[in-house]
Design a protein that fits this description.
- An 11-stranded mixed beta sheet has the order 17-16-15-14-9-8-6-7-4-3-19, sandwiched between helices.
- The chain has helices spanning 26-53, 66-78, 81-106, 128-131, 133-154, 161-177, 188-197, 200-215, 288-294, 316-335, 347-361, 391-404, 409-418, 421-434, 443-449, 456-468, 507-514, 555-561, 570-578; strands at residues 3-5, 22-24, 241-246, 250-255, 261-263, 267-270, 299-304, 340-345, 367-373, 406-407, 454-455, 478-480, 483-485, 494-499, 521-526, 544-547, 563-566, 584-586, 599-600.
- It is built from 19 helices and 19 strands.
Amino acid sequence: MAETKAPPQASNPASPQVPDVKLPDPVEMSRAMTRIAEQSQRLVSEFLARQAADGGGPKSPDPMGVGHAFLEMTTRMMADPAKLMQAQMSLWQDYLTLWQRTTQRFFGQETQPVIAPAKDDRRFKDAAWDENTLFDFIKQSYLLSARWMQSTVNQVDGLDDHTAKKVDFYTRQFVDAMAPSNFVMTNPEVLRATIESGGENLVKGLEHLLKDLERGKGELRISMTDYDAFQLGKNIAVTPGKVVFQTSLMQLIQYTPTTPDVNKRPLMIVPPWINKFYILDLREKNSFIKWAVDQGHTVFVLSWVNPDETLAAKGFEDYMVEGPLAALDAIAKATGEKDVNAIGYCLGGTLLASTLAYMAAKKDDRIKSATFFTTMLDFTEAGELSIFIDEEQLTFIEGQMAEQGYLDGAKMATTFNMLRANDLIWSFVVNNYLLGKDPFPFDLLYWNSDSTRMPAAMHSFYLRNMYQKNMLAQPGAVSLKGVPIDLGKVKVPTLFLSAREDHIAPWKSTYSGAQLFSGPVKFVLGASGHIAGVVNPPAANKYCYWTSDKLAKTSDEWLEKATQTAGSWWPEWNRWVGQYANGKVPARQPGDGALPALEDAPGAYVKVKNE
């Protein structure tokens, strides 16, 4: 946008200098607004046409049951007016203290804040939030109100556990949305950008907003990164290898060795199919796959298909049969080795554990060790994801899947993003729409946005039997291929890697799951969360991890006796799995065995995008 500037101020030593303010060019502004208006009109027309074609939109006005939960909470809150009045008086006292200290600051006195944001709260990182008295008042007012609101709803008596968690979760969503950092007039950084650019940031932000609405076909899909900056097989997911086998649900990738000798026993990785496998192969410097290859493993990875309506009837047991069981047969043909060491990540770990239980029932011992990355097996305490699992919501989800044959990957991504709304939603609202900045190219966020669909039959089975009923933890409650499975029959040596700040698979829940097996178990707790806690290469020299010689009865007892080690847990895992390597053999090249190479890694399946 072209610019004009305000005329210079007359020189007057007695008057303060007024900084130049950029004014918008009226011609450029008119063109931009015309372009925005035309794009908006087209998007609205297309959205209304789709709504009409879909029969007028969603069938339920409140599919998440949020309104009912808050109605119950309000009813019980009003039944104890004395407690509510006490909470109001507490908030009023906090505000009186804040007003008093703010007045003192206006008169130049030093004061202590009534409340301060958490150290990791990046919403208030701009210096003006502390240095400017007005913005400091706005910040503290918000923090006091947020604390009061959350503590008040959390102290309501008589709510069942699920309703209480739902009220707490959606109260936090509201509190996060109303943060002063999310609005132009109460965010000092945005105000500065608006003045300095003559409002150009807001015009550009509006264009970003419309572009994201267009990308989501009427639904807002916030751009987290520059999607044009990455291309699979070119600058992301680039570890050399070949696809050597495939089924309707997965492609099996064998990676090219980088050492003259390799472990005799191959390594099979079963990633989740909620997202794509290349979280373990983002770039060379943080690729677990590349690192494992460099340690002398013959690495095979299952790359799951991004299913459409033609795979709607594929169930959880189909993923077992066409996934790890088929991969075991293929690996034997490719290498001549019947046995493998296996890794399962998140939902892939749940499948691996189920497969191990099925194999135990069938007297099949081809998996000699199993590693589980942030894997839930006991869903008693499923964390905040359990907010989305009740009969009303499951019925709604199954209705959506019945129409399409699958669950839209974008809906799953939104659910996960809500667990960390300030980092994965509101920070991008400020950056993209208020500051008008282009999203930064970031491989992890590119992967995070590259979501996959869930086949209707599989997803319904998983949500109901695992999350809702916790049947996997009950011996014989789940049957696969007509065989009742029991995790207690699994005697394979296992290593569980969990992450202390994991919001998706809370580590104390994964610890409970680790106790379901009857074989030797090593538990490792990494720092950080569901992704960063796993993708933590040694070269980065970040974070830490905890280990202990034996499992304790409870997770708290285990942590109390655990030893903390700085850096990455990857070498710890490699030493452990090395016990089951079964010696060394000359390196194997993909395609040299009984399975010819079909195509280069990362293969075709992973490149299928959602429409």
